[in-house]
User: Fold this.
Amino acid sequence: MITEALHKDMTVKEVLERWPETLEVFIANGFESFRDEKQRASVGAYLKLERAAQTKKYDLNNFLDLLQDKIDEQQNQVDVTMKQTQKSGSEVHVSGLLPCPVRLPLLEGFDAFIENYSVETGIEVSYKLEAASVGADWIEENIKGIEDPAELPDVFLSAGFETFFDQKTIGRFKDQGIFTDITGDVVNQDFEAIQIKDPKKDYSIIAVVPAVFMVNHDERGDLPIPRRWSDLLKPEFARNVALPVGDFDLFNAILLALHKDHGDAGIKQLGRCMLKSMHPSQMVKNAKRVAEEKPYVTIMPYFFTKMAGMVKSLEIIWPEDGAVISPIFMLTKQASLARVKPIAEFLASQPVGEILAQRGLFPSLHPAVDNRLNPEHPWKWVGWDYIYQQDIGELIRHTNRIFEDSMNAA
Assistant:
């Protein structure tokens, strides 16, 4: 229910000044420019919420609901993030980005663990674990400028490819023996069919963010039901697909997977198929109401399939050629291993894996976790051979350029 405090005639700047937590809602729903403070101060000063929704062809009530949901969440929860510290004199530094749906329960457990760890060891731990939705800004400020590996966090975790393999960020340290995988050789049976562990034993993967299809049968018309990723690249799907462009980690994983199989031509076809950039939660709500240009297919994180079950017209399709994987990586510095191994082991533990898998639908690699997946759940994983053979950072920039050009030309 929208309260009187939030209304359609408020400007974006007014909303963000009063409720800064809503920034992630704007970013997740296609307002990427608001990552820039100058854009928020200039464009946001005159852009009213009603007009903002119109520019993205969003249903206004749905858009206001999303903002209000975030405001209510912030007001009603115990803010465990207040316990986080960034003390320069600490012996151990832990940083990273956590998936938004499970960030708070993960932080609650991590807070308690660190408190006990510090009491037992006498080691002071500084940690800052931000929401993944603010990832680009955080990485720009905290990771990209590091030249000396000694300045890197002792433990770092986040989803995606760009941060970990781009030579402009952490990727330039990978071949220097800086990191070590502490998770062991056994993986969850749900991943036994693919080689998901880093064969060089530098990076750990603790869980994955899968991308699946959601189809809206009310918008189907004469179109076929897509069963494979290649189906979406066919001409009949032009301007019929919503893509998670604002979720840069998952979107980049999709671009890499399709480029591996279909090259530049496949990325061009993907750009032509896009109707709009839409946050999955907004898409599910839109399916309940009358709204212009609702997409037939939405590519979404598996997490949002929880919401789709409430709408009869929506069907979740796990692609026959596999759900695209965006890994949640964890880096553990070899030089700090004696101090930080218990911390890294906790982050890769069964309790953390169960929160990720069962509360967030981010399947865990821990062998004891029940990911609650159907027996048939193939993965579309680019593979370590492909990762090692490519300049991943440059390839991501290349595929994004092709996608944007073809989308604008459509």
